[in-house]
Amino acid sequence: MGFARVLGPLLLALALVLWCSATPLSIRPSESFQPILPITPPHCTKTSIIKSTLSHAAGDDSLRTVLMNIHIGLQTTVCFRLDNGSSENASIFADVLKSKVPEQGWLHTLTLTQLEHHHPISQQYEFAIPEVTFTPYKNISYMAVKLEQPSTFAVFKYVAYDYSAGRWVEKDKNTVRVEIDGRTQTRYLDRWHRIELSVSAGGRASRQLESGMYFTRSNLGGEMDQLRKQPINEINENNFERLGWFRKDASGHFNVQNGKVKMQKIHLAKVENCKEQRSQSYLDAHHYVDKNDPEVSRYLTYQRYFGLKILVEKYRKK
After folding, report:
1. What is the CA radius of gyration of the chain?
2. pLDDT of 96
3. Mind listing the pLDDT tens digit for each residue in 276-291?
4. I need a labelling partner for 104 at 20 to 30 A (CA). Which of 76, 145, 230, 275 fits?
5. H or E stretch covering 260
6. Given strand 278-283, what is the order of strands in its sheet?
7. Using an 8 Å Cβ cutoff, are 197 and 185 in contact?
8. Which pairing describes strands 316-317 and 136-147: parallel, antiparallel, or unpaired?
9. Parallel, antiparallel, or unpaired: how do β-strands 267-273 and 77-81 relate?
């Protein structure tokens, strides 16, 4: 039925594979248009890198692959170069890069920007909080969803910089989303498919939503705001002790299932003066807003957002 996204922290193990050959790379015309303000690369996090080199033949040419194993945490950045710019012998990849290519002196950065939990939604319906007259309270409705166990995704931001004419120039960038719940996942970072990213998780995320029923305020665009957990009816339940019993049907109208019988149990009207057409209402409600009470704020505590609100008119004249 859909997915709900939640963020959380985790430690990941990465493997960067650099495919290096002598083929020059084309530069996009848009790269000549740089921002007016100077570009500053992100802060590089100090981390240990285990590097290994593999050689194999590719047709008539010899192709070598550099493999870097890195541990990275949330909001940290790993930086590396294909050439340190001093000399071919001083390059950490001097044995790989036999000929100059445009990206050889660039500063490559990889940032783990966020982690996402994508919860499968197994139940969903729209409900409202009624007035005594049975219209949505303040014309506000809410979406109830039941979340199952999530899938965890890591989001990386890759940027490559070149230092030219006394300033940093952005040469390549990409955002990569990788699922990390199962086996190791592999994605390409650069647009030339020369830098490959392999991701494996070092355990479960330390914070994630529990499975169960949640609700959020309905929006016209269908997007969900922050989810709130509260005892709430599942799609096949109709319990007045929980939210979600006054819900929208297939025709788009709000109603109470079997309401003619059940509403008599929670709402009792007593006539006080028939001539003056004055009556008193009794409601079986745990949390409510009294329309005629000047101190409405005393009811609007924590339960304003989470509890059942029913509008009570103690004395109603016709």
Report:
1. 30
2. 36
3. 777 777 777 665 566 6
4. 76
5. helix 259-266
6. 267-273, 278-283, 316-317
7. no
8. unpaired
9. unpaired
Give the end-to-end CA distance of the chain in Å, rounded to a whole number: 46
Residues in the chain, total: 318
Query: Out of 3.40.1180.10, 2.60.98.60, 3.40.50.150, 2.60.120.810, which CATH number does the structure's domain 3-119+149-201 have?
Result: 2.60.98.60
Measure the CA–CA gap between 189 and 78, rounded to whole angstroms.
13
Q: What number of helices (H) and strands (E) belong to the chain?
A: 2, 20
Residue 159 has pLDDT above 90, yes or no: yes
CB 304 within 8 A of CB 296: no
Which spans in 86-184 are helix H? none
CA-angle at 99, arms to 94 and 102, nearest 5°:
100
**Domain coordinates of the chain in residue numbers?**
3-119+149-201, 126-144+221-233+243-317
Q: H-type helices in 139-285, by residue range? A: 259-266
C-alpha to C-alpha distance for 117 and 68, rounded to whole angstroms: 27
Residue 156, pLDDT > 90, answer yes
- Please name which of 122, 114, 170 lies closest in space to residue 146, comparing C-alpha atoms: 122
pLDDT at 158 over 90: yes
How far is the CA of 221 from the CAs of 120, 254, 272, in angstroms?
Answer: 20, 20, 47
SS3 258: coil
DSSP of 20-48 = E-S------GGGG---SSPB-PPPPPP--
**In sequence order, what are the residues at sequence separation of 6 or more whose Cβ sits closer than 8 angstroms to the Cβ of residue 31?**
169, 170, 171
